[in-house]
Each structure stands twice: as structure tokens, then as C-alpha cells.
Fold this protein.
Amino acid sequence: AQKITQTQPGMFVQEKEAVTLDCTYDTSDQSYGLFWYKQPSSGEMIFLIYQGSYDEQNATEGRYSLNFQKARKSANLVISASQLGDSAMYFCAMREAFYGQNFVFGPGTRLSVLP
Amino acid sequence: EAGVTQFPSHSVIEKGQTVTLRCDPISGHDNLYWYRRVMGKEIKFLLHFVKESKQDESGMPNNRFLAERTGGTYSTLKVQPAELEDSGVYFCASSQGEMPNHQETQYFGPGTRLLVL
């Protein structure tokens, strides 16, 4: 079974609007970390935001926030005030504390910001 | 502070040849990871070093792949002999190793794009 699901292969958003990128995960572990990475066309993987499974508050980093719903096993990335430079692939990843032990990535969502 | 660097950025080789990829982690990072993304597929874990020791190599596809991390600094990933299905992007990542693994951010390099003809 897939551990990380990103159901949106591609998304479009108008510049300055907010956009939500979906991520659901599957784990039996109680302790795990959820990560979002951005991959622009240049190819590098840029860390955006982290959410721990025991964190009670949703993580925020500047224009990025994570809508963490533990019971639903979802960790959606919200980008506010989209910019043209936000156009990229976005990967959701999970690392379990006890099972698996290493990053598992979702298939990614390609976001295109329209002027 | 320099990020994770990888060399070469691109490599085009013929089937049967040998290629060696290099990764220099962020200075002071004990953990070093290799991942790869084959065309159209997801990013997959290959192996994990803690300093010079292989912590987990469960993701290595077969014995044509050999990874080393001499002295716990940079790492190399050798593919010998290369096959067509080895084409893809090979990423290296590093993390400090001061927190539980599931809480630590991994910082990725720019990747090496390997094409086997």
C-alpha cells in the first residue's frame, strides 16, 4: 500500500491567491514526521516545512502552513499569496520513528502559478 | 554555510560502463542518505550512512550499486556495470544526527542526472 498519496498531479493557481496541496499518509507508527519539499525546474529539493505527529499546533513557515489533521492522516500544504516563483513540483514525505526508518515520498504535485 | 553538493550534475554513459557519483554533505552532518528518482516513478530511498557506517542499505536495488563514505565525510555511489534502468536522478541528503531521525530535516543536494544509453 502507498504510504504517501498526493492526489493532485497538477494544480493551477492565480498569482496572489492561496492554494492547498493535498497529502494523505498511511502509518501504524505513533511517532512520525511529515515534511514538504519544493523542487523547482532547476532540480534541487528545497525543504519547506515540518510537522511532528505529536505537535498540537499546525506548523507555519512564512507563507507556508501545514493543515495537519491527524485523525484523517492528512498533512496538506497551504501556500498563501502565491508568487510566480512558487511554480514547482511539491513533494510530501514522511519518516516513521520505528517502522520504515527512512523517508517515503509521495508522487508529487506540479504547481503552476499564473500571472 | 555550504549546502549539500553533488558531482557531476549530469552523466551520460553507455550500458555496461561504470559511473561514480559523489556527494559532499553539509559540514558536520553525521547522517548521509542516497535517494533516486527513476523517470515517472517516486523518489526512493537507497541507503543511509551514519558517519562512515552503513546504517541501512535496504533500498539498494542490487549488487551493481556500491556506496562508500570514507572517513565519514563525502560519499560515493558507484554503479558497475550500469544498465538502462539505472537512468534517473540520484539525490544525496544529509542531516545533523542530533535529533531522533523522524524529527530531523534532511537537506538535499541538487542531484545527479544519470542517463544510461
Notes: Chain A has a mean pLDDT of 93. The CA atoms of residues 8 and 64 of chain A lie 18 Å apart. Chain A is about 0% helix and 50% strand. The first strand of chain A starts at residue 4 and ends at 5.
